[in-house]
From TrEMBL:
It catalyses: dodecanoyl-CoA + H2O = dodecanoate + CoA + H(+); (5Z,8Z,11Z,14Z)-eicosatetraenoyl-CoA + H2O = (5Z,8Z,11Z,14Z)-eicosatetraenoate + CoA + H(+); octanoyl-CoA + H2O = octanoate + CoA + H(+); hexadecanoyl-CoA + H2O = hexadecanoate + CoA + H(+). Belongs to the THEM4/THEM5 thioesterase family. It comes from Actinomadura bangladeshensis. InterPro entries: HotDog_dom_sf, THEM4/THEM5_acyl-CoA_thioest, Thioestr_dom. One of its GO terms (biological process) is fatty acid metabolic process. It is found in: Cell projection, Ruffle membrane; Cytoplasm; Membrane. PANTHER family: ACYL-COENZYME A THIOESTERASE THEM4. SUPFAM superfamilies: Thioesterase/thiol ester dehydrase-isomerase (SSF54637). Its main location: membrane. This is Acyl-coenzyme A thioesterase THEM4. CDD domains: PaaI_thioesterase. Its EC number is 3.1.2.2. One of its GO terms (cellular component) is membrane.
Length: 228
């Protein structure tokens, strides 16, 4: 087993479940790259396991090998989920996030890009995201849209949670390369109204609109922000 100490634990400050953790940014970047490389291989494993046609005996041998690898990872674990952490430089990391978590093989992962009108992301969804034959599971579409819409609503300056999310599935979304786009339609007090879509090469397959709400306890006064 390696002698590396456990990843630094939570320090003093915690806001709304977002944990202040003063790990220096270069160390966060380094560890993130290590975990992302593991998650990438686990993602390959998931795809390979779904699509394998090797014989039963080989499946059982691979299962036993994998059980040994799980034991090695379990040798040192966080007590619960990874959570969302940030340091004094406002470098944030959410390695377990279901959509963008660097350490989470379930996450495609989505790489969200901020642009002039909101956010977009290009993603390739494979066999692990199938619902109807050859098509993306409707819940997966909703999950990815929820995330990019939440990031758009937050606009890197406030925290918002999904209040209401409405989906319109116009036609099946094929597995493969897809583009997500999201933008803010309007704002009313603590409510941010966001519209979004998923498209394949032939156009939009799913449309969504949602109300994202800045919880009262987490609201940052805009006047304080501009005068700072
Ligand atoms: C870093 C980015 C990550 C992005 C992650 C993707 C986003 C997510 O998945 S978040 C997880 C899923 N969402 C949740 O778990 C949220 C759970 N719900 C809550 O926490 C709260 O109910 C919350 C925050 C939505 C609203 O709470 P609160 O601040 O107390 O609202 P409240 O004061 O009652 O209402 C404020 C306004 O919002 C409206 N509102 C409240 N809840 C909702 C709702 N669910 N839908 C629509 N409007 C609502 C109210 O009517 C009110 O409107 P108005 O000002 O016009 O009277």
């Amino acid at each position: 087993m390696t002698s590396r100490p456990p990843f630094p634990e939570v320090s003093a400050l915690s806001i709304g479940g977002f944990v202040r953790d003063d790990t220096p940014t270069p160390e966060v970047d380094r560890r993130e790259a290590v975990l992302a490389s593991l998650a990438g291989t686990v993602r390959e494993l998931v795809d390979a396991a779904i699509r394998t046609t090797v014989d039963d005996g080989e499946v059982h041998r691979i299962r036993d090998d994998l059980a040994g690898l799980v034991d090695r990872l379990r040798a040192s674990q966080l007590p619960g989920p990874a959570g969302v952490r940030f340091n004094g430089e406002m470098r944030a990391w959410n390695w377990g996030n279901a959509v963008v978590g660097a350490a989470n093989a379930i996450a495609p992962p989505l790489e969200v890009v901020h642009d002039a009108s909101g956010c977009h992301a290009d993603v390739v969804l494979g066999a692990a995201y199938e619902g109807p034959p050859g098509l993306v599971h409707g819940g997966v579409s909703a999950m990815l849209l929820d995330h990019i819409m939440g990031v758009t609503a937050s606009a890197m300056r406030r925290t918002t949670f999904t209040g209401t999310l409405t989906m319109r599935y116009r036609r099946g979304t094929p597995l493969g390369p897809l583009r997500l786009e999201a933008s803010i339609a309007r704002e009313e007090g603590r409510k941010v109204f966001v519209v979004a879509s998923i498209a394949d090469a032939d156009g939009v397959t799913v449309e969504a609109d949602g109300i994202f709400i800045e919880p009262a306890g987490l609201r940052i006064d805009p006047q304080e922000q501009t005068s700072a």
